[in-house]
Fold:
Amino acid sequence: MNDMTMIDMHCHTVWSDGKNTASELIVHAKKIWLEALFITDHDRVSLDHVWKIREAWLTTVPSVEITTVDPDRLGAKGKEVHMTYYAQKYNDDILWVLETKRSEKKAFISEYVAYIRSQWFDIDDGDYYGTYYIAAALASRASNRHRLLSLGIQWNESEIRRELYKRLISKNGEYYKAFTAERGGDFFIPRLSDIAEMTREEQWILSFAHPNFTYQRPGRTQFLEWYRDFYQPQLWISAIEINSLAPESWADAILDLDNTQLTFWSDCHQVGVPDEKHANLGTKNQFITEERVQREFWEFRNTLWI
Structure:
């Protein structure tokens, strides 16, 4: 089965935690004959990206990956739930949430840096951002970079003072716990239920991004139960992504759902450099036919009038 497709509805640029510019993604999309490209940067939406994509004669709408929490199902300190949102027009509530989340997160980091300085670490905000890169490298994970790059902050890794940051990382858990207790909480992350309420507009689709990763711990069966009993009937969320890397059990279960719009794929963070959670741009999940993809995408376009 061909592992490439004609669309990709989930990818990232340097505007959040991707390694490529929008122009670079567009060039590669044309090279592999994509017909539709949706850039879903973390908590940031760019009309400039939309115009560039349309100028290249590719189908798109303004898109974003919104970070939320669902404490009633995943616990008060549960895993973040990422939702891809596609809409012709963004209302003021959604734009306020995206801007507030970024600005409060930056303020939170500045406050935390001041606390760290009180513990005799001579660092500034830029130094602390550098620790995310070191922590990611030490853990061989990209998740720490999300927290930094989703704020639109870039960092020259050659400037990192590695030994200082390694010492800080060894104490970071202890400091972070004490700081948040003193502050009375963490930074702002919207509830999934609130985002679902804000996005009940015409010409919109709110979709669970990579549920095979987000809900890996509670499991596929539990996620599907929550979806049928709560997310779909009560929050009106009726879309789920089939991630490029979703195993057959997840893909088949999602394909069998009734009244569910499908979105697709790669969560590409760097063209030509896939990893265990991010595929290359345009990579199709092997457990779904291209005919089904095109049928679902036709329904997606009808919903959004594109």
Summary: Residues 100-183 form one domain. Residues 92-118 form the longest helix (27 residues). Confidence is low (pLDDT under 50) at residues 132-158. The longest strand covers residues 81-87.
